[in-house]
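ESCALATION

Customer reports they have been waiting on this structure for their group meeting. Please prioritize. Original submission:
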Amino acid sequence: MGWLEGCKRIIGFDGCFLKGMCKGELLVAVGKNGNNQMFPIAWAVVETKHSWTWFIQHLSADLELGDGFNLTVTSDSQKGLIPAIENLQCKDEFARLGMLGRNICEYVLDYNKELWVRAYFSPVSKCDVVENNMCEAFHSWIVVPRHKSIITMLEEIKHKVMTRTVDMRRFAETLITDISPIARMNLEENKDAFRRCKVLWNGDNGFEISDGDIRHIVDLREKTCTCRTWMLRGIPCPHAICSLYHLGQNPDGLVEH
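Update from on-call: job pushed to the front of the queue and completed.
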């Protein structure tokens, strides 16, 4: 119920092996709440890799996912071979990446670009993460219970999740605005960054924003910017904020998370 009513449309899947006398694997599904924090959704102890199908089928039914439309999934196991990226804007970044070690760029480019390059991400989930750290955080959070017997482990995980749910609910009740703390922090950072921008207005909803040597096009009606940060995060980027301030408008009301 919490995921359906208050979380981003993104789910991370991961599995870890049990550390105690009872062997098996713990499958987990973790989401992100409106404050960009982990939201444990489901977990199950299984014996074989084929249990992923069973796990996801039950999860899909419980969360009413249907055909998965408008859902973003993260996982550490998705791999695929693709041709090298031809986007020249990535050239400098790959040059810097290549300095970190031998064959790093070649290794990265073995993955489907739509799974790790933000330029290809869908803006539906309002989340631009390129890793599966929310699942890793969950595993670290339950590292002590994972060393115990299965029943004891599941009971302790349940108790930890129940306590966390109550704590997060109490925390949410202390908020005085509809903007979560992390979203507010990102918004304020963008408000500071807009000062380096220069604006040209077409007299309607279109703006051309100069950010150093780079120019971006902002459309306030469509809520888009060519930097794509606004669409991916749901938080007005410095270029959108520059446009809004030019019209004397407050960007706070355009935050989506």
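Sent to customer with the following note: The two ends are 17 Å apart (CA to CA).
Escalation resolved.
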